[in-house]
Amino acid sequence: MTQPGAILQGYNNELVKYIEDLCMQKEELNKQIQQAEEEKSKLQHEIQALNEQLEHVSENLDQKIALRNDLSKILNEAETAYMKILDSSRTLLNVLKKEVGDLKHTPELKSNVT
Q1: 3-class SS at 75?
Q2: Rounded Cα gap, residues 85 and 79, in angstroms
Q3: What is the value of pTM for the model shown?
Q4: Which pLDDT score, from 0 to 100, does residue 84 have?
Q5: How many domains does the chain have?
Q6: What's the N-to-C CA distance of the chain in angstroms?
Q7: Domain span holding position 79
Q8: What is the DSSP string of the chain?
Q9: Which of 51-60, 86-95, 102-111 has the least mean pLDDT?
């Protein structure tokens, strides 16, 4: 009977070794899971912060684009009005030149000029 007892003791020792190895693997895996969960939490926090930052930048960008569009509209209106002023000034100048030219040819001005 000592032989079966020794065999049983050998099996028992081997089982205990495998159980201890499995416990160590489980412990190591638990550490890896905890690290991964911490990393995941950290990344989720960073994503949330970046999303908030992105939202702020997007709102700011939208405001700047709207302002630029308003300025473009005002600038276009001002340029159009300025072109009308230039056109009116050119027309006025041409009219004045013609009228002054016509006045120089009238007999009353010729006698007063000489």
Answers
A1: helix
A2: 10
A3: 0.59
A4: 98
A5: 1
A6: 158
A7: 33-113
A8: -HHHHHHHHHHHHHHHHHHHHHHHHHHHHHHHHHHHHHHHHHHHHHHHHHHHHHHHHHHHHHHHHHHHHHHHHHHHHHHHHHHHHHHHHHHHHHHHHHHHHHHHTSHHHHHHH-
A9: 102-111
